Amino acid sequence: MDVRLPPGPRLPNLVQVLLALAAPAVIFPAAAKRYGVPFTLTMAPNRRKIVAVSEPDQVKDVFAGSPSVFHAGKGNDLLRPLLGNHSLLLQDGDEHARARRLLAPAFGRREIAGYRGLVEEVTVQQLDRWPRSGRVRAHLLLNELTLEVILRVVFGVSDSKRLDRIRPIVGRAVDAGPVVMIGLGIPALHGFGPWRREIDDLATIHDFLGEEIDAARRDPALPERRDLLALLVRASAEDAQGLTDEELRDQLMTLVAAGHETTATAMAWAMLELARHPDVQDRCVEEMEQGGTEYLDAVIKEVLRLHPVVPMVMRELQEPTTVGGRKYPSGVTVSPSIVLAHRSAEAYPSPQDFDPQRFLGDVPTPTTWLPFGGGARRCIGASFAMMEGQVILQQLLQQYRLERVGSGREWPRARNVTLYPWRRARVELRPR
Hey, what's the torsion of the CAs at 352, 358, 364, 369, to 10 degrees? Predict the structure, then answer.
C-alpha cells in the first residue's frame, strides 16, 4: 500500500493552522476541490501532519478503530490550556475509559429526563428577560441562557447569586479566538495582553471549581442531590478508581465550557434558518400544538448538518494504520472532516439547501452525520444537547415569530474550536 501522505496546500504552516481554525468552511472545501479527499495539512508549530478524510469508509475506519491506536487526546491538544490535562476530550487509553465510565451515569436516559424540567424552568426565566420584539443578536442571548442551564445542571444552584461572580468570567474565557488559543500553548506569551487575561480568568474559574468540589464533599445533603457535581462526587467516593479533585475540576471545566457554548451556537444557527424559512417555523408550531416533536427534531439535525458547531475530529495514530484502504505512518493525525462529510452530495442531495425533510423517518448514519463525533469518543453529552435544543426551540417558537434581517445568512466565524454566526445571529423577534 502507498505510505506517502496525500497532497495538500503548500501555504506556510502558520497560515494553514490559522485557516484551519478560523475558516474551516473555506479551506476544507477548497482543498478537497483542488487535491481530492484525503488531503494533507501541515500545521505549526511542529509541522504536524493532519490528513483530512470524509468518505464513509474512511470515517468508519477512524470511529471503529481501536482507541489505543487512534488517540483523540493528542489530536485535541489545542484545548489543553483551556480544559486541563484531565479533560475527557484530552484523555486516551485506560485513563479515558476510566473517566468515561465514571461520567456516563450522569448522562443516562433517566438522568436526562430528570434534567428536562430544570432546562424548561431556566429557559422560561431567561426568555422573560428577552425583548418582546425587535432586532436582537440571538447568539449573545442564547449564550446567557445555555450558560445558566449548564451552571444549574452542573452545580444544582437555585439561588444564582452564588454564581454571579463566575458567570461573566466563564463567558469571557470560552470566547477565546484562534490566535488566543494558539498562544496559550506558547508560555512566553502568557504574560502579555489577551493571553494574560485568559490565564487569569482560567485561574479564577479553577479556584471557583475547587471551592464547589470541596463544598460538595462536605455537604450532608449530598446523597439527595441530583446535580452533575453531586453525581460525580458520589461516584468518585464509591469507586476505588474515583476521580481526584484535580480530575473532577478538569471534567467540570469541560462540561461548563463545552456544554453551554456548543448548544448556544447550534440554536443560533437554528434561529437564523427558521427566520429564513417561515414555512418550517409554521410546521414546527403546528406539530407542537399537536404534542409532537418529530419535525422539530429533524430541524435540529438538519441545522447540525448544515452548520456543524465543531468542524473536524482529530485522531493521532499511535502505530501505522490503514484508513480507507490507505496506510498511514505513526504520528500522523487523521481528521474526519465534519464540514466535508455533511456537504457530500452523495449522502445529501443539494447539500447547500436547508431541508429538514431529509431526517424525517430516517436515522442518520454515523459515517455521514457526525456533529457529535463517533465511536468510543462520541460526545458524552449528545443526548443532553439534543434535549436542551428541543426545549429551547419549543419555548422560543411558542413566544416568538422569527423574521430574518437582510438575507438572513451569516458566515461561520471561529471561537476557540467552534464556529458561530459572524454577526451573532441577527434576527427580528415578533410576539405570537
Answer: 10
Expressed in angstroms, the distance from the first to the final Cα of the chain is: 62
Where residue 53 sits, what CATH number does that domain have?
1.10.630.10
CA atoms of 355 and 83, how far apart (whole Å): 35
Residue 24 lies inside a defined structural domain of this protein:
yes
- DSSP, collapsed to helix, strand or coil, labels residue 50 as strand
Nearest to 182 by CA among 43, 283, 292: 43
Q: How would you write the pLDDT of the chain (432 residues) with one tens digit per residue?
A: 446 899 999 888 878 877 887 788 888 999 999 999 999 998 755 678 999 999 999 999 999 999 999 999 876 777 888 898 899 999 998 889 888 988 888 888 888 999 999 999 999 999 999 999 999 999 999 999 999 999 888 888 666 677 788 888 888 888 777 788 878 888 888 998 999 999 999 999 999 999 889 989 999 999 988 888 988 888 888 776 778 889 999 999 998 888 888 999 999 999 999 999 999 999 999 999 999 999 999 999 999 999 999 999 999 999 999 999 999 999 999 999 999 999 999 999 999 999 999 999 877 899 999 999 999 899 999 999 999 999 999 999 999 999 999 999 999 988 777 899 999 999 999 998
Rounded Cα–Cα distance for residues 118 and 153 (Å): 8
Please provide the DSSP assignment of 121-162 as one string.
HHHHHHHTTS-SSEEEEHHHHHHHHHHHHHHHHHH--SSGGG
**The total number of structural domains that make up the chain:** 1
Task: Tell me if 5 is assigned to some domain.
Answer: no
Q: Distance (Å, rounded) from C-alpha 125 to C-alpha 21? A: 35
CB–CB of 21/310 below 8 Å? no
Q: In angstroms, rounded to a whole number, what is the distance separating the alpha carbons of residues 90 and 249?
A: 14
Q: Which residue from 338, 345, 305, 316 is spatially nearest to 51, judged by alpha carbons?
A: 316
- Residue 174 grid coordinates: 470560552
Q: In this structure, what are the phi and psi dihedrals at residue 137, rounded to the nearest 5 degrees? A: -100, 95
Residue 222 neighbours by CB under 8 Å, 6+ apart: 216, 230, 233, 234
Is position 110 within any domain? Answer: yes
Is 302 strand, coil or helix? helix
C-alpha cell of 86? 484531565
Domain, as residue range, for 25: 13-431
Nearest to 50, CA basis, from 19, 94, 85, 83: 19
